[in-house]
Amino acid sequence: MKRDIRLNEPMARHTTFRIGGPAERFFVPSGIGDLRAFLEECPREEPMTLIGAGSNLLVSDDGIRGTVIHLGAFQSVRLDEDRLLSGAGVMLPGLLQQLARQGLGGLEFLGGIPGTVGGGVRMNAGTEGGWIADRLLSVTYLHASGALQRKRHEEITFGYRRMDLPEGTCIVGAEFRLEPDDPMRIAERLRERMAKRRKTQPIHLASAGCIFKNPPGDAAGRLIEAAGLKGARIGDAEVSPLHANFVVNRGKARASDVLSLIRRIQERVREDTGVDLEFEIEMIGVFEKGAVS
Q: Of 63, 77, 206, 213, which one has the greatest count of Cβ atoms within 10 A?
């Protein structure tokens, strides 16, 4: 079977920001066997970048060195009574709709998040309604060597927007605990979440979601708005007038535009409040001053 490996693949096609230069190599494995074989064959010094929906990424204009691995083919969904076993590439919005139709609730707080199961698990995605860690039973992942391992919830340390797994691992699937419920009630909760997101977030524009983590006891969006930065713009990168913790791509924004704008935000908020805003998005590639994420 021929492998799906593309050279100089534009990353703007694979991020919700619609921004990013080319990946040297872009690999879409057909399944665990294909991914394992690829990892075993690759030189250990080969840089590897794992992506799902690309919904929290800012990719450099100069692209990404090494190989980007896209897990879009990992689409298995299996239900065992109140347990869900999902592949890492399954998109959350479609999965939540499927669970609602089958009367299985518990994950509705993720409604409207445009990411994959693997990405959501990796960053312990959540809202005011809860965190993925609250429902996670286990994670299955591949080591960089190709060895497959499963860790139970109690063996993993979780934090705000993070979970601790060995460096270089690739999440391929996860298991969740669900709760049987009336399909109509589940669907209504999902509709309520989506209605709230449409009202408070610029979901109709290209973005990477919230740019900064919320500092303890406060909200990054409130601090940015108080600094008078709603609507601030560099090129086609703009601080959303709807939600100040979103930077949106108004058409042809470059990664350099976005980075310059978010540096301006950090400086202004630091000057006004003394708070250092930390990135929630992940920056990948070579940026200013040779920084590599």
A: 63
